[in-house]
Each structure stands twice: as structure tokens, then as C-alpha cells.
UniProtKB/TrEMBL annotation:
The lineage of its organism: Bacteria, Pseudomonadati, Pseudomonadota, Alphaproteobacteria, Sphingomonadales. This is NAD-dependent succinate-semialdehyde dehydrogenase. Pfam families: Aldedh. SUPFAM superfamilies: ALDH-like. It comes from the Bacteria. The keyword Oxidoreductase applies. PANTHER family: SUCCINATE-SEMIALDEHYDE DEHYDROGENASE, MITOCHONDRIAL.
């Protein structure tokens, strides 16, 4: 029997709707938001389209006139008030994330903390938007100031339904911008809750709007509307390319955090236990449904067998199930299409000679659950070598030399994250510098933090999120040339 979500302090989080200009919006149609673990309906939410998105953008434009003029200290204070409410309702938000996204509750609560960290970080960064004075000639001074770019359009994915929102919304608001957000259709309830808490914190109506429903219509409106001067997206590379092309018609500033194909390299001299734990943390967090997951695990021959044995032992011990039923390590996949892709990747690998060490099929926990899986004898011709699996499958590739490992690691158009485990400091520098990715985890399997820039190279995107660099994505530079009279003319 399916277990429903436990009672929330804020029951309205389960009846939330899109929020435009401070008011909930109800469209002509609705769609069901379901729990991927149980397939039960959690809520029916309004399905909006281009008309309501236009309204949201126009309200952003009106609100921007006042919001951009507010002192940085005032914007920072309102973000801190939002942060206080997010932390107060941490348990509710965690339960909501697990219910609509499926990740274990402990991970969901960790995500709420991670989401809160971006609000806190950018509340503090609001007061650190500095200008510059550039040396010039005797009768001229050059001053550079930074100003909010304007109205922002944003689209976020389902795998981190809170953190991917605050990582975009917090710097936008801190910079003095206004924003209309389209969350994933799978996970809108968390977005509605965050927007409602922002409004309750005193962030004015129209500064932060949320719309959902007809994805092509909403996306095309956000990318084509002339009032939107900045567009930011997290999702697949294919969709990111399409949205970037649409933004070109109005030459919007774009930030794209796109797909990955992360390699994790384990060299013979690595400490075995940290390497295994790093692989587990990277590969199986959120049931393998993150863009920085280790998609390919490359292990040097001398440590290969011991690594595989230890990894398989950890993976086969995972508790798989509904994150609302008790302690679990792995939850469901988000949709039937996601499970089909994982199943097909495993079948293709086995057909091409991969050896199934553990897992490999659907899990009895439910319709969208897949057994945590370890494969060996993986090779570059397999689909999982070139495509992002986005599921709980760890393929292990054997290599002999450092040069071979780097060649395998870089043989992809993706360049988001990579990981390497070695105790040799010389090799560490060679590998870190040789990996063609925007981020590298050296002897650890987690690269994401609010204090560090997050983003990729090649076809994994444009721009950076988080850190002191993240707010720059929402600012324009203005050069001011000041004429100064020489002393003999004063």
C-alpha cells in the first residue's frame, strides 16, 4: 500500500499554484504531479502557456523599476529573511522534494540546506558588487560600474528542485534583477513553496514569478520576449542548444548548465577506500540522476580487481525504496522513459561484452526503481560510454597508462566535471590540467558548493553559477569616461 506524504506544517505547499505578480494563477487546464515512488497523485496544478508567461514578464518589468533602485543592503536583508523562512520550513521542503522527486529524505534535507546556502551566499554578495577605477590620461578618468542586467528568464530541472532554483534566483535578486522561473513539470511544488516563502519574506510582488505547464510555449516566450535581457537554463545539451538559438533572435545574455559525461579516474597508487567512497558519492547520489555523476569509471589495471570488488560490495548493500518510508540509499527514477534508458544502456553494454557484477534489472520496490548496478569490461563502443545514463549504473573501464586514461576521459563532447584519485602529486597536477572539464574533484567525489564556480566547457555549457563569479552573470558593466580639468585651468 502506498504511503502518502506525512502531514506538513504548511499544508498549502501541497495545494500551491503558479505565482505571478504576488498572486496564484489558475489556467484553463491542470496536470497531475505524481510521486515517482508510488505513482500516486500529489496535486493538480495549473497548466499555463504563453499568455500567462507574457503577464509574468510584464510584471517583472514593472517591478524592476523599483527593485533595481533598492539599496544593496535592503535587498540583502530581504534575502536573509527568505533564508530564515526556508530554514524554518526545512522539514516540509525536504518531504516535498522526496514526494515529488523521489530522492531519499536524508538527501532531500541535504538539498534544502544546499539551496539555503545559495540564498545566504548571494545575500552577502549583494553588498560586494564593486566597481573599478582605471588609470587614464591626465585630463580623464575611467570609472567602471556594474548594474543589474534586467528581467531574467530561467528554466530549472527536476533533479534538484530547490537548489537549482536558488542557485539562479538568489544571485539574480541580489544583483537587482527580477525573474520569471519555469521549473520542471515533474517538480513544481517545491518551486511554488520557495516563491511563496520569498513573497512572505517581503520580496515584492513581480520580482520572483513562477510559471509552469506548456513547456515549448513558456520556453519560447522566455527566449523571445524583448523585455527579457538574460536567460539561464539547466538541462540537457540538446534542449540547451535549441534555447540558445532562440535567444539569439534578441541577443540575450545566456547561461547554460548542460549535460555531462563525467569520467572518474582511479590510478594504481590511489587509496582504495577513499576512491570507492568517492565513486559511490559521485555516481549514486540522487540515484545517479545528476549532471556531475561519474558516468564512466576508469580504473588502472593494478588496482582494478580490488576496486571493483569493494565497489560492488558497497553497491549491493544499498537500501532501495520509497524515501518517505524510512532510511533508504536509493530512490526511484523520475519517469518511465528514464528507466527505459537505463535498462537499454545495461542491455547494450552486456550485449557488447560487459560483465554484470551486481544489479542489472528493475527493482521490486516499484515501477520506476532500478537495481544499483556495477559493470566491468566496459569499452568506448558502448552507448553508456558516449551517452549520459542518468541512472544507478557504474560502468568500469580498465586502463594501463596515464596517457590512455586521459585520452579515454576526454573522448567526449561534454566537459562538465571529472574526478581523479591518486597520491602522486606530480600525476595529480598533470591529470587535473589535462582533463577537459570545467570542474575536477581530486581525491573526492563531490565538486558542488556555493563557494566554488559551477559550470562546464565544450558542449556542457556557458557561464558559471555559485561563488563570487555567479552574481556577475546578472550584471552589466558600464564604462564612464570623466573629463577632469588640468590644475592650471581650475
Amino acid at each position: 500500500m502506498a504511503i502518502t506524504i506525512p502531514p506538513l506544517k504548511r499544508s498549502d505547499f501541497l495545494t500551491g499554484q503558479p505565482l505571478v505578480d504576488g498572486s496564484e494563477v489558475y489556467g484553463d487546464a491542470t496536470y497531475a504531479v505524481t510521486n515517482p515512488a508510488t505513482r500516486e497523485t500529489l496535486a493538480n496544478v495549473a497548466s499555463l502557456g504563453a499568455t500567462q508567461t507574457h503577464r509574468a514578464i510584464e510584471s517583472n518589468s514593472r517591478a524592476f523599476i523599483d527593485w533595481r533602485k533598492r539599496p544593496a543592503q535592503e535587498r540583502a536583508g530581504l534575502l536573509h529573511d527568505w533564508l530564515t523562512l526556508v530554514r524554518h520550513y526545512r522539514q516540509d521542503l525536504g518531504l516535498l522534494i522526496t514526494a515529488e522527486q523521489g530522492k531519499p529524505l536524508a538527501e532531500a534535507l541535504g538539498e534544502v540546506d544546499y539551496a539555503a546556502s545559495f540564498i545566504q551566499w548571494f545575500a552577502e554578495e549583494a553588498r560586494r558588487v564593486y566597481g573599478e577605477v582605471i588609470p587614464a590620461s591626465a585630463n580623464r578618468r575611467i570609472v567602471l560600474i556594474r548594474q543589474p542586467i534586467g528581467v531574467v528568464g530561467a528554466i530549472t530541472p527536476w533533479n534538484f528542485p530547490a537548489a537549482m532554483i536558488t542557485r539562479k534566483v538568489a544571485p539574480a535578486l541580489a544583483a537587482g534583477c527580477t525573474i520569471t522561473l519555469k521549473p520542471s513539470e515533474f517538480t513544481p511544488l517545491t518551486a511554488f513553496a520557495l516563491a511563496k516563502l520569498a513573497l512572505e519574506a517581503g520580496i515584492p510582488p513581480g520580482v520572483f514569478n513562477v510559471v509552469c505547464g506548456d513547456a515549448p510555449a513558456i520556453g519560447s516566450t522566455l527566449t523571445s520576449h524583448p523585455y527579457v535581457t538574460k536567460f539561464t537554463f539547466t538541462g540537457s545539451t540538446a534542449v540547451g542548444k535549441l534555447l540558445t538559438a532562440q535567444c539569439a533572435t534578441t541577443l540575450k545574455r545566456v547561461s547554460m548548465e548542460l549535460g555531462g559525461n563525467a569520467p572518474l579516474l582511479v590510478f594504481d597508487d590511489a587509496d582504495l577506500e577513499p576512491a570507492v567512497e568517492g565513486a559511490v558519492a559521485s555516481k549514486f547520489r540522487n540515484t545517479g540522476q545528476t549532471c556531475v555523476c561519474a558516468n564512466r569509471i576508469l580504473v588502472q589495471s593494478g588496482i582494478h580487481d580490488r576496486f571493483v570488488e569493494a565497489l560492488a560490495a558497497r553497491v549491493s548493500a544499498f537500501q532501495v525504496g520509497n524515501g518517505l518510508e524510512g532510511a533508504t540509499d536509493q530512490g526511484p527514477l523520475i519517469a518511465a522513459s528514464a528507466l527505459a534508458k537505463v535498462r537499454d544502456h545495461v542491455a547494450d553494454a552486456v550485449a557488447q561484452g560487459a560483465h554484470l557484477v551486481t544489479g542489472g534489472k528493475r527493482h521490486e520496490a516499484g515501477e520506476l526503481f532500478f537495481q544499483p548496478t556495477v559493470l566491468t569490461e566496459a569499452n568506448p563502443t558502448m552507448r553508456l560510454a558516449d551517452e549520459e545514463t542518468f541512472g544507478p549504473v557504474a560502468p568500469v573501464f580498465r586502463f594501463e597508462t596515464e596517457a590512455e586514461a586521459l585520452a579515454l576521459a576526454n573522448a567526449t563532447r561534454s566537459g562538465l566535471a571529472a574526478y581523479a584519485f591518486t597520491r602522486d602529486i606530480d600525476r595529480a597536477w598533470r591529470v587535473v590540467e589535462g582533463l577537459e572539464t570545467g570542474m575536477v574533484g581530486l581525491n573526492n567525489g563531490i565538486v558542488s558548493t556555493e563557494t566554488a564556480p559551477f559550470g562546464g566547457i565544450k558542449e556542457s555549457g556557458l557561464g558559471r553559477e555559485g561563488s563570487r563569479h555567479g552574481i556577475q552573470e546578472f550584471l552589466e558593466m558600464k564604462t564612464i569616461s570623466l573629463g577632469v580639468r588640468p590644475e592650471n585651468e581650475v
